[in-house]
Design a protein that fits this description.
The complex is a heterodimer of chains A (308) and B (483). Chain A has 308 residues and is mainly alpha-helical. Chain A contains seven helices and four strands, in the order αααββββαααα. Chain A has a two-stranded antiparallel ribbon. In chain A, strands 3-4 form a two-stranded antiparallel ribbon. In chain A, α2 runs antiparallel to α3. Chain A is rod-shaped and about 140 Å long. Chain B is 60% helix and 12% strand. In chain B, the strands form six sheets. A four-stranded antiparallel β-sheet of chain B has the order 5-6-7-8, covered by helices on one side. A three-stranded antiparallel β-sheet of chain B has the order 9-10-11, with helices on one face. In chain B, β9 and β10 form a beta hairpin. The two termini of chain B are 23 Å apart. The chains are: A mainly alpha (308), B alpha+beta (483). At the A-B interface, α1, α2, β2 and β3 of A face α2, α3, α11, α12 and α13 of B.
Chain lengths: 308, 483
Amino acid sequence: MRVTDNATARMVLATLQQQQERVYTLQQQVSSGMRINAPSDDPVSAQQALDMKVLIAANDQYSRNINTGNTWLAQMDSSLSDMNNVMVRAKELATQMANGIYDAGARQNAANEIQGLKDQLISLGNTQIGGKYIFGGFVSDQPPFITTDGVPSPGDMAGDFKGTDDPINVQIDQQSFVAINYSGGKLLRGGTPPGSSGTDIIGTLDGLITALNNNDTGSIRSSIDKINSSMQQMQAAQGDVGARENRLEKAGDVLTGTRDYLTKALSGKQDADYLQVLSDLTKQQTAYQATLASTAMFSKISLLDYMR
Amino acid sequence: MSVSDVFSIGVSALYAQKLALEVTSENISNVNTPGYSKQTAILESGIPNQDGRFPVGSGVRVASIRRVYDDFLQKQLVSSNSSAGNYNTQQTAMQRVEQLFNEFSAAGLGTDLTSFFNSWQDLADNPSGQAERQAVLAQGNTLVSDFQRMNNSLNQVKSDANQSLQGLTSDVNDKLKRLAVLNDQIHQLEFQGGNANELRDSRDKLIQDLSEKVSVTYMNEPDGTVTVSLPQGATLVTGNQAGSFSLEPDPSNSGFFKVLLTGPGSSVGSDVTQIITKADGSQGEIGATLQVRDSLVDGFISGLDELAYNLAEQVNSVHGSGYSLSGATGIDFFSPPSTPTPPASYAAGYSRSIAMNITNINDIATASSDPTVNGTTGDNGNALKIAALATRSISMSTGNSTFSGYYNSLVGKSGVAAQVAEQGAIQSSAGIKQLQEMRDSASGVSLDEELANLIAYQKSYEGAAKLINVGTDMLDTVLSLVR
């Protein structure tokens, strides 16, 4: 092949440009830390990487939902424990007052204490998290239970349930929803209307107060059974809440595991392999320098040098 | 043979070597001229004279100054230039498109789509929360402006392509005119027996440059002119007449230009838009520009339209079935209303017109039943349904996929389009490099070679001068006999 000056110059230029382009690509990978800096770098992997990012984002959102759920359920759990303690005291008083040795005055005092316990129960039923009432179902912006002092008279409406039995669901993975609340109506009033699906706990306490005021030991005794089934109802609710807390915890573990896996897979798809990139970069630099050096050397040689 | 023959032979040699030296110096001086073809002085011996019993030559003369030139290579360079022009133009446009879809360099529509649905999840966790409602509204606005921005930018790529046709056609017209002028000059010069090597080089270079803009074929005519035409036959230049391209808004193609060609010597333009758009990757810059404008970008715009339309339709249908804080129902989240027409199709231009229908955060329908009836402001049933749309597979033109999945496939498509154009550009430039190398090898100037020629011709010149010296001596000798 006949080699001409222009051909050599063009070849050198093209080679240098090619090498610089490679160095540029590699340096971009080093500085961004990513193998894919634009979809065209690897369209298939790019699409897969983006799909994974979507999954990771959804995963993070589910984790956030679970956090919200955990806060609600934990608060509910603690409120239920407090309610249970209230009922323990009520049972103690009822058992005591069923005994014949107490007089009407003592029973009157007991009635007052039970009234206090009932108010406590109602205020526990109006527990809030961040301004939201957790026992009210979908009625979360106003107290679900009517309190003694905030009541529309006439008559003792205290303890009436104004909320709903609806479950407040949160999404914990692509398919599953978990309710993070428990209906106060079902818990303290035994359904709507009261007593329709369980024990009406508020009603039981109202009955006990009436019996104590009337000094009616028979009714006091019979209310003890109701207090027992009330406590069972509360424990059942606590069991339900606890089970759901467990479920959230397990779902959270799965999410963490999935996230780890996805992050690793995503990194495999889009992250640059520094070892590889840096060694390639070194090789490219050497090649670039060699081209420059050889060009400088050979372009000096010409027949002109020998024509004097 | 007379002594004077020595003189005439010597003079012919002086003349021929001088001419050869001139050619060499022309070569040396044009070593860096693009498109220059090396020239060689072809020497031949003079017609022999019958001198007594022996025929003796009459010296040397320059038969011709030949231009080392390979028409086959030239033709290949012309067609390679067309595909290089084509792919380079496509590459520039597709890289712009790709950059719009590049979720790797900056968060774009894809990220905002995820954030939009996540904001609904947050709202479901706290359906009456003002901050959460505000976030949903803000994310909705971001999403809508993403769609509008991308639609706008993609249309900008199209209209920029359309605008660039003006510069391209005037450039081509200028080249066609210069070709016609060169044709005329070469014809005149060669008709008078002159040497038009340099003009032919310029003309070849001009055809090469022209082919980068628009794909052409050419034919060498016996009278020294070339006839240049579109590959499909329409003539652009013949003899000393040039045709020209002109542009005219086409109402049937949203007012974009159609390309008209007025043939040489004609005064009526005919529409050649379809002819030069033919998508075989060898149509030069004008062809590629038309492809970018009329087909390449459209796929991405319709993809966005379909995504925006289906998103609006799905979100609106769920949102409309829910209740706002004030108990209103049947409210669309996005506007304009997407009329559900089974099977799900999409309205062209929807990604440009999509907007938020809701401006008041209390109009966001999170509840599945009227919250004003029982004060059920904590009802998150509808918010959950909308949030769940993020992972729902929707029937799209490309099959079933989620919104994010569909968008990601658009990103992938933009990557493939940019990659194809880039590879086309790399391959065609490699092809050109190869052809240039071959051309350089055949027609290029090698300084070493010219310098060697310089020495050879110089020595011959010295020899010829010596010959005249000797002739003079001989003549002197003869004359001294007479004395």
